[in-house]
Structure formats: C-alpha cells, structure tokens
Amino acid sequence: MKKVTYPIKYISLNIIKTKKNKILNKITKNNLLKKDNVQKNHVVIKVEYSNLNYKDFLMAQGHAGLIKKFPHTPGIDASGTIYYSNSNKFNKNDKVFVIAQPLGVEVNGSFSEYISVPDTWVEKLPKGLTSKEIMMIGTSGFTAIKAFNKSLKTILKYKDKPVLITGATGNVGLFLIFLLKNIGINIEATTTKTKNNLVLKRLGVKKIYQLKNFLKTPNFSLLNEKYSVVFENLGGDLISICLKYLITKGILVSIGNILGNSSNINILPLILREVSILSVNAECSNTNERKNILKTFKSIKLKRQILKRTKIINLKEVSKIIKFQNYNKKILRYVVKI
After folding, report:
1. Which is nearest to 84 in space by CA: 43, 35, 39, 122?
2. Least packed by Cβ within 10 Å: which of 48, 141, 320, 333?
3. What is the CB neighbour count within 10 angstroms for residue 328?
C-alpha cells in the first residue's frame, strides 16, 4: 500500500437535508480526512466492502434517532485494510472488520472509501473468512446466530415442534432459515408479500402466513400450543400474538421493532405456560461470543447458502436501492463493494 498522505480525498454516500427539509442521498467526491481528525487510539480503514441493512433505509429517511447531524454517511458494517493507525493494537495493512458496533450512528458510516474509528470497534479478519464473506455475515448474521444460540436448547428439546420466524425475508430472517434448516427443524414464517412465498418455500420454509392475516388472530388469552420458539423480528402487537402460540416453556426471542416499540401483552402465556421473552442486541456480545459466532460462519455449507442469496452492488446502486419504498423487494443479502 502506498505511503499515507494527508489530507485523504475520498468518495462517500451521504444523507443530506435540503433548505426545504427534504431528505436526499448523494454521492460526494470531494470529502477530506485530515490527519488532525484521527484521534489517539483510532485507526483509518480503507473500506473494501460493506452491506445494506434496515438501519440504512431508516437513515435514508432522515431518522432522528439515528442521524445526529447532516450530512451523514450510513453503513453499519465494514471490512478492509488499515491505512493509518494511531493505535498500538493495529498496524498498517492489517486486514480488519467492524461489525455490531455504533458505526454509522455515533460516527459516519461505511458507505465511504475511508473511515476513522476507535480501535475498540475493530477486529482482525479471522483465517478462513475473506473481506467479502465477513460482510455477507455482518451485524445481521451476528444477531441471527446470537438469537439462535440463546434458544437452541429449547429448539432441540422440542425438535418435533415447528419454529416461527416473523419478518422472514429480512437479513436476520434469512440467516435464521439457514441455521434452522441445517439442523432439520420445521420452519414456519410470516411475510408481507405473497410473491415471497415461492422463494421462502425453496429456502425450506414449510408453512407461510401473510402478515395481515396473522395479525387477525382471534383475541383469546391463549391459543393452541404450537411453536417451541418464535424469532420475532417485527415488534409491536405481533409479540402478543406470538406469545399465545408458544408451547409450555417456549421462548420468544425479540429482535426487531419495525411494527412498533410497544406491545399490549396478555400475561397469561407467561403465567400459565411459563413462556419466556428473551432479547438480542449484537452490540452487547462479549469477546468470546463474537469468536464463537464467527466459528459458526466458517461452515462451508452455510457460506454457500448465504452466497446464493447475496448480490454485490456498488455505491451508485446503493443510492437507488436505499429509497425506502424499495426495501425488501428482493429476498437478497446486499453486499456493497466500495
């Protein structure tokens, strides 16, 4: 790699707010990173790959909880090479990645040729995984395997019972389908679009419910015991419905909140069936958890499954796809080549 020279001129995709308060995304080519901007114990990464996540679509809307000031660069995961290190932990040319950290929220994100981040967010790329493969995993993969591990004992104990995945066509849902299929579990799922049914069937989902119909479930305190585990990716009052379908000692793993941050829960499933609600946040993973998660994704079979549903795109394509109305039109994992 060539000698580090400052300022670093680079390209990034930025979310901007116009004088009329309209939110737009724009690729800018004249960004500058000065040496003085690189704080102690920070590194500069030349980004090779990122990926596309639901948070990026929210940021494209100007979501106030995710964007502190404009312009803002989205992108929550990154892989690449250390370009400059102001840290004792890393050296120039180290292959590294950033996953399940506040990248793209607390600081500008990875839809950029260069990023400057604290060394505590950065990890060396493990043997057996490439820069592209680690971005096929990303925060979504970390979240899925963490949710899977939290509930695995119950899944295996009641292996004859199906498992439900809500929001199954999202990134986390896709990973969960692969993980459950690989241990022979009967998978059921909800989706918002009937056109997703064929792909979900091909992926191994046995039964599919349209979300709008699933939400019309009779308002009883308890429903027939059906699922050992529910991976709940959508939030809102769907949580309450799913709890009623759990078997005795079943588990609901709360992962996402697309349908809302609150749920009017009937507590009888908790009291009478002793069901549990667990939560998952990939950013809360400790060092050992992170290492074990990466070991899971070294599986050749799992790599192949993910690769079949992965599409490589560039920043110009991100700029088009990131419009909210296009979210989830295809059941794909988008990896961004910077």
Report:
1. 43
2. 320
3. 18
Stated length of the chain: 338
- The amino acid at residue 162 is P
pTM score > 0.90 for this model? yes
Q: What is the pLDDT of residue 323?
A: 77
| pLDDT tens string 38-64 | 999 999 999 999 999 989 999 999 988
Pick the range with the lowest mean pLDDT from 3-17, 67-81, 172-186.
3-17
Rounded Cα distance between 244 and 214, Å, is: 12
Q: Is the peptide bond between 7 and the residue preceding it cis, with omega within 30 degrees of 0?
A: yes
Task: Identify the bridge partners of residue 269 per DSSP, sorted by sequence position.
Answer: none
pLDDT score recorded for residue 123: 97
- Model pLDDT for residues 250-293, shown as the tens digit of each residue: 999 999 999 999 999 999 999 999 999 999 999 999 999 999 99
Rounded Cα gap, residues 137 and 133, in angstroms: 7
**Three-state SS for 211?**
helix
The full DSSP string for 274-326 is: --EEEE--GGG--HHHHHHHHHHTT-HHHHHHHHHTEEEE-HHHHHHHTSGGG
- Between strands 310-313 and 333-337, the pairing is parallel
For residue 154, give every residue at least 6 positions away whose Cβ sits within 8 Å of its Cβ, in sequence order, or none.
228, 229, 249, 250, 251
What is the pLDDT, as a whole number, of residue 298?
Answer: 83
Measured N-to-C along each axis, helices 300-308 and 131-157 cross at an angle, to the nearest 10 degrees, of 110
| Residue 245 DSSP label | H
Q: Alpha-carbon distance 254 to 222, whole Å?
A: 19
Hey, how many other C-beta atoms are within 10 angstroms of the C-beta on 154? 20
